[in-house]
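User: Write out your own:

AI:
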Amino acid sequence: MAANNQAANKHVIIAGGKTGGHLFPGIAVAQALMEKDPTTKILFVGTRAPFETDTLARYGFAHKSIIARPIKGKNIFAKTWSASLVGISLVQALAIIIMFRADFILGVGGFSSFALVLAGRILFRNTAIHEQNAFPGMTNRMLAKIARTRFISFKETRGMPENDTTFLVGNPVRRPLPTPLEKENTDESVLNRINPDDFLILVTGGSQGAASINEAFTDAVAMMEDTHRLFIIHQTGKNAEAQIQQFYRAREIRHRAAAFFYDMPAIQDRADLVISRAGAGTVSELCIKGKPAILVPYPHAADDHQTANARYLADQGACIMFADKDLTGETLLAAIEDLQHNTDKRFEMADTMTALAMPHGADLIARHILETDVSKRNENVPA
């Protein structure tokens, strides 16, 4: 993918984030870089969003923020104000690249990545973007014409056909946190009560939670006749955390419910069934881990890319898909009970998930970064 001219002590900026769909692939690449060359210096540049800063702190990566605002979907006054900030963010990006002595800038999506990748090209640094979805967001659609290299997660990524500067690598998947799950997110006494015969359901609506999934799942649980073999781990989102915790306590259902779990990969390892949105990162993690799933695409995602993600898996028999408007407690209960009692079907879904996995995305991007010759900043690196 890149010429074999590895430079020692690379300085790499990973730009973008704010949501888990953008941030976690960047973290996965950073982890792979450190595994391959511990002398690599890594700096994340993004926003001051608490989710972004808290997550990077937990993973131990340095972070700087710039002024940047989204433009898409805002009114004309907000768009004008956001556009006026582009110049400020570009100056900040230029200063950060120079002070950090960055050799390589990787944009992982989100509006904060635009200034860094553009500044990188202005300063003749090596630049690349990673697109997680089959339908690129607005920032990456613009950066696709600016960055020297593009990494894609789907073979049919709109506007980014494979060629000598666009590589199909899949979606980088982060490693678990160094801190054990029991200490990070869950009372050890609760997890110790998980029995080998328990049916462990992981429910998650992404980093912000999902009201429709929360409502349908709790409605389904309320209709269950026997919950003794259930153990539920539920990522609720901030607004629903207390309400859902009380729901499980009132029914004496063994559970762990929290607004957000930072070590989702470790939790996924324990799940028998996952009920989730269908973001690209989530789909990639489920495929790599071979987890049967009920997917409910977020209906307002840009270009409806989550529906495309889920439909692709459903057409292969890897998951069950519900449109958000069709999700009810009754329909969800029927699907859960079918999968709970049909072990063969779950195993078939898990095998199909595994067959669709692309597990080496982080390693491929990290290798490209480390093997790119910093003396050839103005040339395209051949495959």
Summary: Residues 76-100 form the longest helix (25 residues).
